[in-house]
Amino acid sequence: DGGITQSPKYLFRKEGQNVTLSCEQNLNHDAMYWYRQDPGQGLRLIYYSQIVNDFQKGDIAEGYSVSREKKESFPLTVTSAQKNPTAFYLCASRTSRDRGIGNTEAFFGQGTRLTVV
Amino acid sequence: KNQVEQSPQSLIILEGKNCTLQCNYTVSPFSNLRWYKQDTGRGPVSLTIMTFSENTKSNGRYTATLDADTKQSSLHITASQLSDSASYICVVSGYGGSQGNLIFGKGTKLSVKP
Predict the structure, then answer these.
(1) Could you tell me whether strands A87-94 and A107-108 are parallel, antiparallel, or unpaired per DSSP bridges?
(2) Are strands B86-94 and B108-113 parallel, antiparallel or unpaired?
(3) B42 to chain A, minimum CA–CA distance in Å?
(4) Residues in B lying within 8 Å of A, measured between beta carbons
(5) What is the pLDDT of residues A73-91, one digit of tens each?
(6) Of A13, A98, B25, B41, whose CB is crowded by the most CB atoms within 10 A?
(7) pLDDT digits (tens, 9 = 90+) for B47-98
């Protein structure tokens, strides 16, 4: 089945520890995104990548890092520099150019809930 | 500044009733507007997507409208069901900018009661 997969679904992090969230897609999409969702707030963009080996900071990139070595994969590392990492993290992908209505849709993974313990 | 504003913030309705959610945006240039449904603890799922030239689009009991002149959209839910309880997010796609071309509203939390 085509889709976008995030893992793990739940993740617990100790203070001072780095953790990596996985995001894989087999939709052949060029662009991939990482968002953070907190209660009562809209999705906030952490990082995005329009093409392999290139990525851009979003609005809240501090304390996070990403890589885009393969088109299918866009892992997010939450570093110890992120002071308030407890949140719901969503990964999304879409084509980077408008080729028609059906191709501009963004597909989301099921999310990873990260909790600091 | 590119923004997407949704109202109301939350809404409670009885099963079987209709409701309408609103979305106003200031994104320019405009590419398309989408409505997503997000169940608690899950990723958003697309309901509709509309471009500049489309005024209305339906997906089952969901009907979205778009007025590109006033930069307003609405999502109408007909004959609501308990399973409609979720957050509904309006997302506007522009060109360029620091947000990767997708600008999100904060969502409307809908609760359908029996």
Answers:
(1) antiparallel
(2) antiparallel
(3) 5
(4) 4, 31-32, 34, 36, 41-46, 49, 51, 89, 91, 93, 98-100, 102, 104-107
(5) 999 999 988 889 999 999 9
(6) B25
(7) 998 988 889 999 999 999 999 999 999 999 999 999 999 999 999 987 655 4
